[in-house]
Specification:
The chain is of the alpha/beta class. The protein has 20 helices and 14 strands. The strands form three sheets. The protein has a six-stranded mixed sheet, with helices on both faces. It has a five-stranded mixed sheet with strand order 3-2-1-4-5, with helices on both faces. Strands 12-13-14 form a three-stranded mixed sheet.
Length: 500
């Protein structure tokens, strides 16, 4: 990133949508504008876990305003993510199709652990760099993230489905506050968070930090009442609980520092916060300035990971965990990306960054194409696709993992299973290169590619040209390629062989 470059991060949270805009100043991000709107989309999920029309409309209108502010930004200058509400929403694709259009940039739905990584990243970069062992807690609208880390490195990350909106809707839906309702809400939150006891005991961290809106809202009320600024203590939580019970309802709540938009969800937020304090033995929590959107900015700046590409490391970890034949994965990846570069006919990164992204995703899919082989030999592609669709991989959005799963599912066998996805030209290109590479590497050794060229026609067609004598020298490969031609004939695309 050069000096003066603009950057922007968009965070579609369950309670608020946020937009952070700034410029690069000698390698550091300097904020120039911050927009926040209380959309409360997390309260717009119906009983079937679909976003209501009103919730979608509110989100679209907010993103349209953000999109107007982002006009003129380049693709590499903006990163937008959505969290728990859209992780849960069954109709998220309906929302995202229009949301991407009105914002003007793609919105990635990220996994809970990826959200936790970004939160820690944002918090850590705004704290002094010491050897302090940190516990970071982010209580959002529908999820709570807990992270342990030292310096800039998170070591334990988890996301739990408990949050201020969800708990307020479930235990304080009528807006009434009572000692009994708070007891029930806190017990239920502890039941969800109970497994955190083993991973986040007090002897594994030196200081606790709270990120996001819940800790800020509680802290504002406590400061207005004379408690120390920047800290939420157990005594302060006890005091606040007594005041909420005394008020009896959100409508009757009159407290300095309490914003109107927080009254409806303060009951759930306090309940979850008290559960976290009780379970993890926290006596006081410092309010952290950083958060998810700051973690996104770190990704854009390239300061997120000093040990290489985070996603490449995630691919390596997945390959290791599932005992993938890494040598063969690399072999297939080398051939697949070689064919891809022939079709694209240009540099993969410098002048065409979109080509670089296509290249990397194809290479990752090739390295993981046999990830399901330890489950089943005959259907390993199906098991591999399932693994990737359900894996938490640091650095990847859910849509990126789904793209990898589609490539793994489609790298062998009939193409009918991917019929709905074959309308996307970039996926078809990756799939063609991957399937051909798997065929050419079928003997599990590097193939002879001399004189072999893959090209794409003007219509939905590909042509693979081989040198004279290649088919006679490699009859099994030639036979598999002929079968591949027949498989593509049953799709809107075609593959032609020349010299085979």
């Amino acid at each position: 990133m050069q000096n003066g470059n603009r950057l922007a991060a968009v965070d579609l949270g369950s309670n608020s949508f946020r937009l952070e805009i700034g410029r690069v100043d000698h390698g550091e991000f300097r904020r120039t504008e911050y927009l926040k709107e209380t959309v409360r989309q997390g309260g717009g999920l119906d009983e079937d876990r679909n976003l209501t029309p009103a919730a979608m409309q509110a989100g679209w209108e907010c993103l349209a305003r953000f999109g107007e502010r982002l006009a003129g930004f380049k693709p590499g200058e903006v990163k937008a993510v959505a969290t728990q509400t859209l992780r849960e929403a069954r109709n998220r694709d309906v929302f995202l199709e229009r949301a991407n259009a009105v914002l003007g940039f793609p919105i990635d739905v990220i996994s809970g652990r990826e959200e936790a990584r970004l939160i820690y990243q944002g918090v850590a970069h705004m704290l002094p760099q010491t050897d302090e062992r940190r516990l970071v807690v982010d209580i959002g609208g529908r999820s709570t993230e807990l992270i342990l880390g030292t310096g800039l490195t998170p070591t334990v990350m988890e996301s739990y489905r408990v949050g201020s909106i969800a708990w307020s809707k479930r235990y304080f839906g009528d807006g009434q506050f009572s000692k009994k309702s708070f007891e029930m809400a806190e017990i239920a939150a502890k039941a969800v968070l109970d497994e955190a006891l083993d991973a986040y005991p007090p002897d594994r961290w030196d200081a606790a930090y709270g990120s996001a809106g819940t800790v800020g809202a509680i802290g504002d009320v406590l400061v207005a009442a004379g408690w120390p600024a920047g800290i939420v203590s157990q005594d302060g939580l006890d005091w606040l609980l007594d005041r909420l019970i005394a008020a009896q309802s959100a409508d009757r709540l009159r407290m300095p520092g309490m914003r109107e938009d927080r009254k409806a969800i303060i009951g759930g937020g306090v309940s979850v916060m008290r559960a976290v304090f009780s379970l993890l033995g926290i006596t006081e929590m410092q309010h952290a300035a950083g958060g998810l959107r700051h973690g996104l900015i770190c990704d854009l700046l390239g300061t997120a990971n000093t040990y290489g590409d985070l996603r490449a490391k995630s691919v390596q970890r997945l390959a290791s965990k599932f005992n993938v034949d890494t040598a063969h994965g690399e072999r297939v990846g080398t051939v697949a990306t070689h064919l891809l570069q022939q079709v694209l006919g240009g540099p993969l990164d410098e002048q065409h960054p979109e080509h670089g992204r296509t290249y990397r995703k194809l290479n990752w899919a090739a390295r993981l194409h046999e990830i399901g082989s330890h489950i089943s030999h005959s259907d390993y592609h199906k098991h591999g696709a399932y693994i990737l669709d359900n894996a938490d991989a640091a650095g990847f959005s859910l849509s990126e993992m789904h793209r990898l799963s589609l490539l793994v599912l489609g790298h062998r066998g009939k193409l009918r299973k991917l019929e709905a996805s074959l309308q996307h030209d970039d996926l078809v290109l990756q799939l063609m290169c991957l399937r051909l590479a798997v065929i050419l590497c079928h003997a599990r050794r590097a193939p002879d590619l001399q004189g072999m060229v893959l090209a794409r026609g003007d219509d939905h067609s590909f042509r693979l040209r081989c040198r004279n004598g290649w088919a006679a020298a490699f009859p099994q490969s030639a036979h598999l390629l002929q079968e591949e031609v027949q498989l593509w004939q049953k799709t809107p695309w075609s593959l032609a062989l020349v010299g085979v």
